[in-house]
Amino acid sequence: MKLGIVGLPNVGKSTLFNAITKAGAESANYPFCTIEPNVGIVAVPDARLDRLSDMYSPEKYTPAVIEFVDIAGLVRGASKGEGLGNKFLANIREVDAIVHVVRAFDDSNVIHVEGSTDPARDIETIDLELILSDMEYMERRIDKCRKMMKGGDKKFEPELRFAERIYSVLESGKSARTLTFDEEEQLLLRDLPLLSLKPILYAANISEDAIGGDENDYVRTIRRYAAEEGAEVVVISAKIEEEIAVLDDEEKKAFLSDLGLDQSGLDKMVQACYKLLGLISFLTAGPQEVRAWTIRKGTKAPQAAGKIHSDFERGFIRAEIVAFDDLMSCGTYAAAREKGLVRSEGKEYVMKDGDVVLFRFNV
Q: Which three-class secondary structure string do you get for the chain?
């Protein structure tokens, strides 16, 4: 899963990126301190893996991972080349979802590119640039379909109608993600790399002293925008996350407890992104390795097996599955099997979050 961190300059993008990846991207109090997209890989926190590790004492411990891309700050006019322009819109095309960091605090010591804190304006600024870029792309698509139809190729008519419907929504100032699509249209979408169609998570960046308190008007504004387009919101303090990032596990727990928090901002972001993208994890466990594998909800057993190796999917026989909670309550895999809690599932089985699985295959 690749997530692109976007936002206006100086809203806390690189600070957040530094914190969650510990990758040390440059962070400074001026616009465009991020010139090339920084990429960092972060492990997905999963307490279930920790408990499986306690059970098996494996040689390897392999969590699922998320790739974060810190994309340079967009400004008004980016779609026309302003600021750092289209280069960074192209970076956004490559990600699975967008994490839009929105400033939700006042601080006269931190420059805002627009001169003041206004989440509604900031969100609309970024959205508009993505929409304008998509409109330019769809104009080319529509022109191509019309030319092909003039040449007598009627098969482009459904694609033309589809493209025109998307364009009319974009022209009205709304993102493509506000549309719903039927099965036939879903197939057409595969060839449309639209920026405003990507799932979006808003990260409301609040000040350190606001942690644990009531949500301010800025955060409420962000939640209102997110609700209108079915997006997710996490409230986070990039500065706090930066402080947490350098602590070991025990210090981190104590620090969060002192703040009245039960999880870090990273944990919240991961959970929200999984929900946003419809993702779940299945687990494999044994003396050699405990590991989490990320799949989409609705994935069947053979395709899940294919995440491990293509031979597993090609030669799939069955999946031996025990629910994580059942395995923990029994204490051992053997005990779970004795109680009849290890199931044998075939090719039509739909994987569930937390399934602990052993795939049987033959090639």
A: CEEEEECCCCCCHHHHHHHHHCCCCCCCCCCCCCCCCEEEEEECCCHHHHHHHHHHCCCEEECCEEEEEECCCCCCCHHHCCCCCHHHHHHHHCCCEEEEEEECCCCCCCCCCCCCCCHHHHHHHHHHHHHHHHHHHHHHHHHHHHHHHHCCCHHHHHHHHHHHHHHHHHHCCCCHHHCCCCHHHHHHHCCCCCHHHCCEEEEEECCHHHCCCCCCHHHHHHHHHHHHCCCEEEEECHHHHHHHHCCCHHHHHHHHHHCCCCCCHHHHHHHHHHHHHCEEEEEECCCCEEEEEEEECCCEHHHHHHHHCHHHHHCEEEEEEEEHHHHHHHCCHHHHHHCCCCEEECCCCECCCCEEEEEEECC
Determine the pLDDT at residue 75.
57
How confident is the prediction for the chain on average, in pLDDT? 86
Residue 76 has pLDDT above 80, yes or no: no
Give the pLDDT band (50/70/90) at residue 35.
very low
pLDDT at 33: 43
Is it the case that residue 77 has pLDDT exceeding 80?
no
